[in-house]
Amino acid sequence: MVARSILAVFNGYDHELSGLNTAIALAKASGGHVRVLHVNSIAQSYAGIFGEASVAGMGWEEEIERQNEARLANARKMTEAVAEREGLTLDATATEGPSLFFVSLRNAYNRTLLRELSLVDLIVTSSEKGVGDILSQSVTDLALFSSRRPVLVVRPSDNDAPATVTGAPAVVAWNDSPEAMHALVNAAPLLGEASRVHLVTTEKGSGTEVPEDQKLALAYLAAHGIEAMLHVVDTDGRQAGEAVLAKASELSAGYVVMGAYGHSVLRESLVGGFSEYMLGESDLPLLLSH
């Protein structure tokens, strides 16, 4: 069974529509429910970045509030349009899916937000490669590092089409790390719907022996009725992320399952790392777990 409780992070930007449409497509496939989460910043959130004196002295508080109200109105309007197109009644109390509910929160760092991010099966967010606003990044970071829920990062697409996830071939980027193990377990319900599952690793065993962690990963999937094929990829001097993405393309994968940030975010951003590379370069949707 795929996710039945889905949260779509939506700030009202055009590039996020593919993510919202993906969440709805997943809900329709499972008879599930989508909560569309819009988070407005408060001026104090920017004070830590630009300095309290700058925020207050330049009159930014009023401007931030004005932008917040405009973003909220736009996000709500866009969600209403999507609901109408999909034949869904927005905000209707429904015990049977699919359904769509719009939620607006003001504070990006509070218990209410973490509750919204935690009590779901899956979080869906949209991101253009290499860009993103401060607030959407902070919400996604909180989702990934604090909620312990899987986060599906979807790229913008032509005509805002949903990403093809349910039923698509899937690649699991594997290494012997807690993050990869958590990602595999979190992804099992979705992998059960995949047409094919490929376990891709750049870690070779000694001789012809398959390493124990790879055997256990395949056994875990088999216990869930998922037959996966193991691929050991030679990096040939490339970054691991580049090698995995090349293999995913060769296998016509619809998405990649991966553990995120086995090293600190700071270290990966400074010296480079698998997560940074994948988030910066992948055109495929990424199903992340930390």
From TrEMBL:
<comment type="similarity">
    <text>Belongs to the universal stress protein A family.</text>
</comment>
<dbReference type="InterPro" id="IPR006016">
    <property type="entry name" value="UspA"/>
</dbReference>
<protein>
    <submittedName>
        <fullName>Universal stress protein</fullName>
    </submittedName>
</protein>
<dbReference type="Pfam" id="PF00582">
    <property type="entry name" value="Usp"/>
</dbReference>
<feature type="domain" description="UspA">
    <location>
        <begin position="4"/>
        <end position="155"/>
    </location>
</feature>
